[in-house]
Records
---
Amino acid sequence: MIQNDTALIAAIRDRFAHVDSCPFQGPRIFFENAGGALTLKSVVETSSFHAALPDNPGRINPAGQATQTTIDKAKADLALFMNASSGQFLAGESGTELLFRLIRTACVNAPEGAKVIGSSIEHPATRSAARRWADIAGLSYVNVPHDDETGLVTAGDYAALMTPDVALATILHASPVSGMALDVAAISRAIRAVAPDCVIIVDGIQHAAHGQLDLDSYDIDGYAISPYKVFSRHGYGIAWISDRLSALPHDRLIDAPATGWEFGTRDAGAYAAISDVVAYFEWLGGEVSPATERRARIEAAGRAIHQYERFLVDAMIHGTGNLPGLKDLQHVKIIAGVENPAREGLVSIAVAGIASPDVVDALNMQGIRTHTRKADHYSGNVLEPLGLADCVRVSLCHYNTLPEIAEFLGAIRDIEARLAA
């Protein structure tokens, strides 16, 4: 396991840019991974190389052919990484933009009078798109309420509101506010048991960095990620769409291929950077297991990441060494509860008597980077039912360390001690 191998932790950290310092701030601990994970050094190098190329992919010249090969390889790598034996991958402006495109296409092709179903825990990337396009297409929207205390929505919750006329369903894989992961496969089965032809689209943006992806097992039609949250760079999103969704009438150029979804010249550097991410997972899987086959290594890496991040989260909540955990601090409330096995690499807290932006500022002054989530259009669906105006999001990844957790706990203890004084 990663936590028992200090040399491996050092090797992991060495592969990421700015792992322990910020070029603007200096030394710092990075617990803002849900806002954007650290970037692989290989991604930085790959992006720089491709940014300098003037050639368009696919042109009949060596550079054009090479960049097209890069794109084709990346799509094959994505299929391996996400375990997708069919369908296609495409790049867009962002994960959010791609979710809007997929949801729009499903809504405008839905039968007249059909329904759209989604849950109240979802990020507005899916909720906003589904409600907007359901209204435009004359469809009714069905909201599945989540459990406020656990931050979860279950297959049973969906099943209770499913009807055969549901044409589109949206699912959140993991919440960027509470950190809770949902059982996508179970929810998908519950949906298809009632509406087998329903188009199912999943927001995987928060989940992708924290565990395994297995699209073949989900029985869905669309899945989107934001590469900057899974060790790549900003400026693009990646979506997978099923053969069925690919073939639906959608925005495309006149006389363009019927299943073509991408517009304009592709950024080969963005695709190449995704191949770097997949290669990193393969490398890590080889370090934590004896596996030699590529997919087996990726799966081993996902298991190791999940186990190690659970170890770090448990230390943050329950304490480490002589430092009390968050659950032991009188003025600290842990969003979605202390013991919640669905939590993935993220703990959100509220400190009674101190506005969350002030807590974030105090931590930042000590070189600990966290983030405020406010009860706004991004996070109000989670925070408002809890009576919270805001919270502090502490989000980690597998390159974080136990000493970093300890430093954070010491800083939070000092902030709480000033409250109690």
---
Amino acid sequence: MFKKILICLAVIIVIFVVVVALQPSEFRIERSVVISAPAAEVFPHTNDLRKMQEWSPWKKMDPNATYTFAELSAGVGATMSWAGNSQAGEGRQTITESRVNEYVGIRLEFLKPFESVCATAFTLKPEGNQTTVTWSMSGENGFISKAFCLVMSQDKMIGEPFEEGLASLKALVEKR
């Protein structure tokens, strides 16, 4: 009887490992919003790590988080580190690419609760007096992340804060 239980347990573990291994390694999540303002009014809020804190959804998740900014807070080379609760975690972001009124690329390094590196970006597309802002994140999932994604939607977990942040960015820029 004990031998049958061990065999069944081994089969379940093998099936689980195979299912997890077959999950996609790469992910991409993106959300967009149309802001009633020209790109020149939106861009500074995506290209300056200090200004991002005015509309960041993660700042709301942990108002007591600590933020440390490098001397340069905007444009290529700007860096910001944070340390917060279990929702905010701990990490660092660095602007790696910046094209005025068009694009901001960021290297996002998570240190806690799990170490990982992702690429995030803000793409601005002017359309008359409006600007479509797309916030994206892409990266690779290791085995544990793939297993986690079997029970939690990564798209929902990241996408919902993106939607909230973009709505706050829209309200902030359109208010001015």
---
Amino acid sequence: MTGARPDVAVTGIGLVTPAGTGREATWDGVCAGRPTARHVPELKGLPVDFACLVPDFSPRDHVPGSRPWQYDRFTQFALHAALEAVSDAGLDPADWDGDRVAVVFGSSAGGTGTMLDQHRKLLELGTARVSPLLLPMFLPNMATGQLTIHLRARGPALCTVTACASGATAIGTALQLLRSGACDIAVAGASDAVVQPLWVTGFDRMGALSRRGDDPRAASRPFDTARDGFVMAEGGAALVLEPASAARARGRPGYALLAGYGASSDAHHPVAPDPESKGAALAVRRALDDAGARPADVQHINAHGTSTPLNDAAEARLIRRLFPHQPSVTSVKGTLGHLLGAAGAVEAAITALSVAHGRVPPVANLEKQEGDAEINAVTGTSRAQPVDLALSHSFGFGGHNAVLAFRSCPTEPAREPAAPSP
């Protein structure tokens, strides 16, 4: 591709989250604001014994091929989400030019479930019981690798690892590949499956997790004065990105245009956000500049909103400072928990759906905000709202910041939304 920078459309979305398997199940769940946290038997006995898990996910039913057991759970999520997104876009890997298809997928940790299980076997049973599939199942890039095989995609294939910003970084990187002419189609997203005793204990020892074990469904409460930490979750999301002109030529309406991407680093602390949000503000400004927009143009923000005291306070003050006109704000972590590396991809997908359907999901469990950090958060029920420009914030350990800007498609009608539950 040469010439002017093309508009890039989101033409397909696939989701696997604690609200359910599939795009419609997740959209219905977040619009209804139904919290998904529950006690997890495998975590019994730990100080934190609850999380948000993908319900009723059967590898045999939801993963292609006859041997789904050969993939770690994070790869299973990636495969299902990506194949749903490609089908949703009206594309078929049997028909496209695989040389011109890129795959960019993120993960915070890769197949740690496999790694922990195989390490246990090594210690208890010896080397002969360690699976020869250990590395193909565990390595973080293997979701990307397996996707390229199933999608017959021979273009650029990358794995992004920027902690909880991994999914947004993947989508932003895919946007840059499309603009550069390195590919004609990109499948981008992220997946994670790290709800395991070691990870939960590690986050708890840091003081990052909610201890509201007597009422798990009320534990994840972004921006609420009673928040005490995040709730771990698992899942994945994939977006199909392509030039808007190509999508229109084949009669496919886009959910939204991916108009801008901004990235930065806090350069402040390994795990704590900069209380002045200088790095996050830089990422927001870069995303807006990339989209050719001003802060006053933003009508909606899908916040990182982790339900931790430090992150929510810093992000709320950032929003108040940069957007005094008070755009609507949501954080779906109240419903879904924190999907770690997959969070940014899931939230990008939800933001694109909000643009397409003119509906903003509520922040579950938000009852009272801090007076000096109050934002225009959607609470209670979803809000009908036309959205022409929206931002999706993602901030990760290590000071990684990634912000995506979505615009409405100017000439295409929005797709018929799945009706949210009452």
